[in-house]
UniProtKB/TrEMBL annotation:
SUPFAM superfamilies recorded: EPT/RTPC-like (SSF55205)
Domain of life: Bacteria
An annotated GO BP: chorismate biosynthetic process
Residue ranges annotated for the Enolpyruvate transferase domain, each copy included: 21-176, 270-376
Molecular function as annotated in GO: 3-phosphoshikimate 1-carboxyvinyltransferase activity
Source taxonomy: Bacteria, Bacillati, Bacillota, Tissierellia, Ezakiella
Protein name listed in UniProt: 3-phosphoshikimate 1-carboxyvinyltransferase
Keywords, comma-separated and alphabetical: Transferase
Gene3D superfamilies, sorted: Enolpyruvate transferase domain
InterPro entries: Enolpyruvate_Tfrase_dom (IPR001986), Enolpyruvate_Tfrase_sf (IPR036968), RNA3'P_cycl/enolpyr_Trfase_a/b (IPR013792)
């Protein structure tokens, strides 16, 4: 069964080719907007990520894929028609926080809906929606692994609290296209709200049929940027212009002499970036500090703790504060040739373990490559093909 044995072994000879993939965040947004705008839609370069599929299956009972080869490797064009919109009441979302927080406001359409998922999913923040339900008198029932609700949003304006997740604002903005205004306050990861604004602009045109292209996934590209910086990329990777200046920042940061980095607008980069800084620190003896990471605790796992655990396993010393991680060289009595076994709970932590494997002399055995399907199917298949 998947993840039963430590099936892969890596070491300092590991090199990985650049495997681009399309953005799961944009794919999510285009799906939601197609449903809300209620128009025939063609989505090119649709992401094969598990998360995007979860949202697709929740929104549509039927859809058509046309497969083709693009610069992202094997990819697909997804065709959606309004008559294929879901008629089901209950949907299983596994551990996809994005699906949950995007679907709730869209499903506030007067009908009854039930969203089910893993237990961790319902431990993650839902505060804004719970408050919204109470304020609007919307009936809801939340249990350990599901939420049921039925209601409608009737106001013209909503003030959304994004201190725990930007997805509350993104979800409300997509559900409210051409219907109500959304204001939001301060919070980290604001670039994801800009991404929502951009997706709305791309889709909310007057033409009857919608056609959009999903751009490259920049969080996954960051993983390859780190490999490239340390000369562990097999082959080269094409230059690419990021949509926003914050999208492609890793290469620049690694080349700089800075020692403090604020990740509040690039939270998803924390695992691969801490791995990169730990390797740099082992090479040059400098200390590095990452700040702005408070919300990492709300991810698929408690990412701050997972980051510390993985760094410690590879012999890097770290200390953790309320909103910071400090990386302080390598532990002096560490055996660099020993075998390391680890079981990352989620995709971004798996990425980080792969990077650290490239700098470990002994063998590294990593379980659970299935978690990579969440955002990067190509990398998952590549590891499956590795001898
Ligand atoms: O809108 C999106 O697509 C996302 C927003 C961010 O969530 P939070 O604002 O909850 O951190 C990000 O971490 C997540 O991976 C994807």
């Amino acid at each position: 069964m998947a993840g039963r044995k430590f099936e892969k072994n890596f070491d300092e000879n590991l090199k990985i080719p650049y495997l681009p993939c399309s953005s799961k965040s944009y794919s999510h947004r285009f799906l939601l907007l197609s449903y809300v705008l209620n128009r025939p839609t063609k989505i090119k370069n649709f992401s094969f990520s598990e998360d995007a599929n979860i949202t697709l299956f929740a929104l549509y009972d039927n859809y058509k894929f046309k497969y083709y080869n693009s610069r992202f490797g094997k990819t697909a064009e997804l065709i959606l028609l309004p008559k294929w919109k879901t008629k089901k009441e209950a949907h299983y979302l596994k551990d996809s926080g994005s699906s949950l927080r995007f679907l709730i406001p869209v499903f506030l359409d007067g009908k009854k809906h039930k969203l089910e998922g893993s237990e961790r999913l319902f431990e993650r923040p839902l505060d804004y929606y719970e408050k919204l339900f109470k304020d609007e008198g919307i009936e809801f029932k939340k249990s350990k692994n599901s939420i049921e609700f039925s209601g409608k949003l009737t106001r013209e304006k909503f003030d959304v609290d994004i201190s725990k997740s930007t997805q509350f604002a993104s979800g409300m903005m997509m559900a409210g296209v051409n219907q109500f205004d959304v204001n939001y306050g301060e919070g980290p990861n604001i670039q994801y709200i800009h991404q929502t604004e951009d997706a709305i602009l791309r889709m909310n045109k007057s033409s009857e049929k919608i056609e959009v292209h999903v751009p490259e996934d920049m969080s996954n590209r960051a993983f390859f940027e780190v490999l490239k910086y340390f000369n562990r990329l097999d082959g080269d990777m094409p230059k690419m212009k990021a949509a926003k200046s914050t999208d492609n920042i890793i290469g620049e940061w690694l080349k700089s002499n800075k020692s403090i980095f604020d990740l509040s607008n690039n939270l998803d980069l924390a695992p691969v970036f801490t791995a990169a800084l730990a390797i740099k620190s082992a090479m040059n003896g400098k200390r590095y500090k990452i700040i702005g990471i408070k919300n990492l605790a709300f991810k698929e796992s408690n990412r701050t703790l997972e980051i510390k655990k993985v760094l410690n396993l590879f012999g890097y010393a770290v200390s953790i504060g309320r909103d910071a991680i400090v990386i302080c060289e390598r532990t002096s009595d560490f055996d660099y040739e020993r075998s390391i076994y680890l079981y990352p709970k989620e995709h971004r932590i798996f990425h980080m373990a792969l990077i650290l494997s490239c700098f470990h002399k002994g063998r590294v055995f990593i379980k659970n490559k299935e978690c990579l399907k969440k955002s990067h199917f190509e990398l998952y298949s590549f590891l499956g093909r590795m001898k």
